[in-house]
Specification:
Elements: E1 3-9, H1 10-13, E2 14-16, H2 30-42, H3 51-54, H4 75-91, H5 96-103, H6 106-111, E3 116-118, H7 122-131, E4 134-140, H8 146-152, E5 161-164, H9 165-168, H10 175-185, E6 188-194, H11 197-205, E7 210-213, E8 226-228, H12 231-238
Parallel strand pairs: 1-4, 1-6, 4-5, 6-7, 7-8
Antiparallel strand pairs: 2-3
Helix pairs in contact: 4-5, 7-12
Length: about 240
């Protein structure tokens, strides 16, 4: 029998609790908006901002998933994105020279281990999936440190393999992001689960069953997608499949 895998987006498993309550799902890009807020607070610019103020001004790679990019490791990824962080800060009236300096501190703020927590049912859901014969893998649209973040929230030993767009060169829902996972896993049965309906649509376009993890019952679903309210619902849905 072929191995069975479920590819979960990182934001279904964990949240940066500086802007989102621990164990809860926040708005898209809340992790980044919170990190910029914290980087400003840790700086000497004498200003404050909020995630709600910063979030609309962020321009990050997953906002343009049709674009392939080179893989970028460690410092290289962060340096490449400092201008986007600085642009967002300048848009909320941090003077440009100071915004450039604060942007260099976003990495430390974002990766601060005290700022992250697993969502409430992550541990039990991953254990249930493994117990039912499903191997969880994770995909992060973001920096290279996906394994560090999984370890920070205590989920690294529950995940079979972790992927990040910083190293694959593709942001979900780009087809090559899914194909990169399939290439790495080999011949297998694969399901996908994520918070963004576009991710499920991208999976379905490739014949991969897609699940949307949507606490909001009114969330729009792409044709053929399944919907669950919590991560534990993914385990319920795949139990027996």
């Amino acid at each position: 029998m072929r191995e069975r895998y479920v590819c979960l987006t990182f934001d279904t498993l964990a949240a940066r609790v500086g802007s989102t309550p621990a164990g809860a799902y926040g708005p898209s890009d809340d992790d980044w908006a919170g990190a910029l807020r914290d980087a400003v607070a840790a700086s000497s610019v004498g200003r404050t901002t909020t995630p709600d103020a910063v979030r609309p001004h962020l321009d990050l790679p997953w906002h343009h998933p049709d674009r392939m990019h080179a893989d970028r490791r460690g410092e290289d990824w962060w340096r490449h994105h400092e201008s986007a962080f600085a642009d967002a800060l300048a848009a909320v009236d941090v003077p440009r020279r100071q915004a450039d300096a604060v942007a260099r501190g976003v990495r430390e703020a974002y990766l601060d281990p005290t700022a992250w927590a697993a969502v409430e049912d992550a541990n039990t859901a991953l254990d249930r999936l493994s117990g039912a014969g499903w191997k969880p893998v994770v995909y992060l649209n973001g920096p290279p440190e996906v394994e560090t973040l999984l370890a920070t929230v205590g989920l690294d030993d529950r995940v079979h393999e972790a992927f990040t767009s910083a190293l694959t060169g593709y942001e979900l829902p780009h087809a090559r992001a899914f194909e990169t996972v399939e290439d790495a896993l080999g011949d297998c049965r694969l399901w996908f689960a994520g918070r963004d309906p576009a991710g499920a649509a991208g999976a379905l376009d490739l014949g991969i069953p897609g699940i949307v993890v949507a606490p909001d019952a009114d969330a729009a679903l792409p044709p053929g997608a399944r919907s669950v309210a919590t991560l534990d619902g993914v385990a319920d849905l795949l139990d027996g499949n």
